[in-house]
Each structure stands twice: as structure tokens, then as C-alpha cells.
């Protein structure tokens, strides 16, 4: 999850902190916990980090970057809008439903974060979800469908699959494909289908 120009020790601290934040949540993880995990006292740990808040924001941003890069790679080379959407949905679920993944717990732990960083976390999450905001306009949807509502419903469903998913059943890939199939309101596919007025 980490690397680049960081020292080996710095990477070790980031990995340890990410694991603790994902396992316990922001509020239940202390700087002392992180220090004990990597064998450093508090004073020595602050040589590598500014604060617990800054550390969490950095790890959260890195998790989003990893997720965004994986989705972009999955969509690369695909031109059909439905295939691109399916690749994005499948990859997001593979990340979210991986029991060893640190990405989604970090991305979703907003409630316990202090207000001074929560706004930034939400803004970063919104920027990540812009991937889907850019995909939806290219879909050949029925003009009667509101694309904003369509996007929000899709993201809500994707973000909540983990609440009912059980290993041993359908794979994340199968679930992602089923979701896209359900959301596929293709104009051509719906031609000739009689419209039913909503019940009042």
C-alpha cells in the first residue's frame, strides 16, 4: 500500500497504522498503539509523523489512490460504456470485499474522525467517486432516468454490499456483473417495452 520515496521505517509505520486504523477504527487507535506495534516510543514516533490526525489523512488518501488506480487499470483499453462501468463496479467490490484489504475500512471510517479532518476525508471520497460521475454520462440510458439519482443509487448499493456479502456464495465479480445487469437501462434494450405508470 505504501512505497515510493519513503524510507523502509516510514513505510513500516504507515503499514502498521493502516492495519490498526482498519481493525480498530480511528477513535480506538492511539499513537501509543502505533508506536508499540513498530517498537518505537512516542517521542521517536513523532520523528516520522506530525500527528495522529495527519497520519490518518495521509493513509486514507493513499488508500483512495490505490483504489482509484486499480479501477483505472481495470477500465483501461475498454471503450464500451457498459463494459467500463462493469469493470469499475467489479473492481470496487473486489477491493471492498477482500477480507485482507485495508482500503475500504479506511475509506469508510468517517464517523469517528474529528470534525477538523472529516470534511477533508469526505471531499477526498467525493473526488474518488467522481470516477462514477464521469462514467454515467456515457451510458445510453433512457432519457426519462435522472442520471444523478442513478449514480447515487448505484454507489449506495456498491458501498453496502459488504453488509450482506458472505464468502462461499457469489464472487465479487459475479455480484458486480449482476448489479450492472440490474442497472442496465439501455435505450435499445427497452425499445418496444410498454411503459407502466407508477402506482399511486
UniProtKB/TrEMBL annotation:
Start-end of DNA-binding region: 30-49
Keyword terms: DNA-binding
One Pfam family it belongs to: TetR_N
Recorded GO MF terms: DNA-binding transcription factor activity; transcription cis-regulatory region binding
Annotated ranges, domain HTH tetR-type: 7-67
Coiled coil, from the record: none
UniProt keyword annotation of Translocase present: no
Domain of life according to the entry: Bacteria
UniProt-listed SUPFAM superfamilies: Homeodomain-like (SSF46689), Tetracyclin repressor-like, C-terminal domain (SSF48498)
Matches recorded under PANTHER family: HTH-TYPE TRANSCRIPTIONAL REGULATOR PKSA, HTH-TYPE TRANSCRIPTIONAL REGULATOR RUTR
Protein name: HTH tetR-type domain-containing protein
Lineage: Bacteria, Pseudomonadati, Pseudomonadota, Alphaproteobacteria, Sphingomonadales
Amino acid at each position: 500500500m505504501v512505497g515510493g520515496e519513503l524510507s523502509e521505517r516510514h513505510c513500516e509505520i504507515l503499514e502498521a497504522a493502516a492495519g490498526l486504523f482498519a481493525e480498530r477504527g480511528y477513535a480506538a487507535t492511539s499513537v501509543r498503539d502505533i508506536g508499540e506495534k513498530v517498537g518505537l516510543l512516542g517521542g521517536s514516533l513523532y520523528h516520522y509523523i506530525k500527528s495522529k490526525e495527519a497520519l490518518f489523512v495521509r493513509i486514507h488518501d493513499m488508500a483512495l489512490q490505490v483504489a482509484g488506480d486499480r479501477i483505472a487499470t481495470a477500465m483501461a483499453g475498454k471503450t464500451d460504456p457498459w463494459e467500463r462501468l462493469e469493470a469499475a463496479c467489479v473492481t470496487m467490490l473486489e477491493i471492498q470485499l477482500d477480507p485482507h484489504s485495508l482500503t475500504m475500512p479506511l475509506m469508510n471510517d468517517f464517523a469517528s474522525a474529528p470534525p477538523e479532518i472529516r470534511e477533508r476525508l469526505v471531499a477526498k471520497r467525493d473526488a474518488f467517486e467522481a470516477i462514477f460521475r464521469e462514467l454515467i454520462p456515457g451510458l445510453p440510458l433512457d432519457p426519462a432516468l435522472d442520471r444523478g439519482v442513478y449514480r447515487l443509487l448505484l454507489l449506495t448499493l456498491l458501498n453496502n454490499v459488504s453488509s450482506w456479502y458472505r464468502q462461499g456464495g457469489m464472487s465479487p465479480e459475479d455480484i458486480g456483473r449482476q448489479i450492472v445487469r440490474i442497472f442496465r437501462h439501455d435505450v435499445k434494450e427497452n425499445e418496444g417495452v410498454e411503459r407502466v405508470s407508477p402506482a399511486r
